[in-house]
Write a structure and sequence with these properties.
By secondary structure, the protein is α/β, with parallel strands linked by helices. It has six helices and 13 strands.
């Protein structure tokens, strides 16, 4: 407790000097919005690197482990804690230590896209430059740049990043999961199939993007990166957000899409604001953790 109090005191003092400093707090933090009075990012919990399940190579099992910790500790146990505030150990690419030994180019790209598409405000790149230079003749440097640009281009919508789908590994089966965001104008959607076999997921864009019930619109999706077409999810054409989509993802794949909301929503305030404190006045405006009016 004394260490935590000391850390909080240091963060308060740092902000007095530099209010816009980005602070990441790891040891001693847990899944609670309490921390975001003081810090910008917290640790996702448990092992720095591990693997779980029996699907795919060790890199696939590592991604599944990492995201399963987020699902268990945050999405399930602390659903009001925003997942775009997590330090997850985003990408680990090295020949040293107890880490993924698979250096398959496509697998590393999947790890990269997951690390950025989850909307985390702190993406870590634990990468050896030798591996970046040698794998697929250095193509990973451009892949990293593409992911960074994608996140920068979507910085206005990613504060709404939230979980989509199921548990990456429930103890016996790997389920499709991912992340989505929506701000009334734009959207992002990312889906990963951690299984070593093809499987479907049934969703509506209303549910996936977490669009309020009073909004009626269509969303047009476009590929965020160079990727194959996916069965059940059309791109380049308006999709009614209440249309049931049965999307089939190939084995061990990650797909990311950008979305455009095709309706102007003057009644929906897209500005991201701090969570308001409940006051006695009846006309007080309250915002949720994504900055939406409640």
């Amino acid at each position: 407790e004394e260490n935590i109090e000391g850390m909080i005191d240091l963060e308060k003092r740092a902000r007095m000097v530099k209010p816009d400093i980005f602070l990441n707090s790891t040891v001693g933090t847990y899944a609670s919005p309490f921390w975001f009075q003081f810090t910008d990012a917290v640790w996702r919990q448990d092992a720095d690197w591990s693997k779980i399940g029996n699907q795919g190579d060790d890199r696939e099992q590592w991604i599944t482990y990492r995201d399963r910790q987020v699902f268990n500790h945050f999405v399930t146990d602390a659903p009001i804690c925003p997942i775009n505030t997590l330090m997850t150990h985003g990408v680990i690419l090295t020949s040293h230590g107890a880490v993924s030994k698979s250096m398959n180019y496509a697998g590393v790209v999947r790890e990269l896209r997951c690390a950025f598409a989850c909307g985390s405000s702190m993406v870590e790149l634990y990468c050896d430059y030798e591996r970046l230079n040698n794998i697929n003749k250095g193509a990973l440097w451009k892949d990293i740049a593409d992911c960074i640009k994608w996140q920068q281009d979507n910085s206005d919508v990613l504060p709404d990043a939230h979980w989509v789908g199921g548990n990456p590994w429930d103890g016996s089966k790997a389920h499709i999961y991912g992340w989505a965001s929506w701000n009334g104008k734009k959207a992002t959607l990312a889906l990963r199939n951690p299984a070593a076999y093809e499987q479907p997921i049934a969703i509506t864009l209303r549910d996936a993007l977490d669009i309020p019930a009073y909004i009626h619109t269509t969303v047009t999706l476009a590929d965020a990166f160079q990727q194959n077409a996916v069965s059940g999810l059309p791109t380049g054409e308006p999709i009614d957000i209440d249309t049931r989509l049965v999307i089939t993802l190939p084995a061990s794949t990650v797909f990311v899409w950008n979305g455009t909301d095709n309706t102007d929503h003057p009644e929906f305030d897209t500005a991201v604001r701090p969570v308001a404190l409940l006051a006695d006045e009846p006309d007080t405006t309250i915002y949720d953790l994504q900055g939406r009016k409640v």
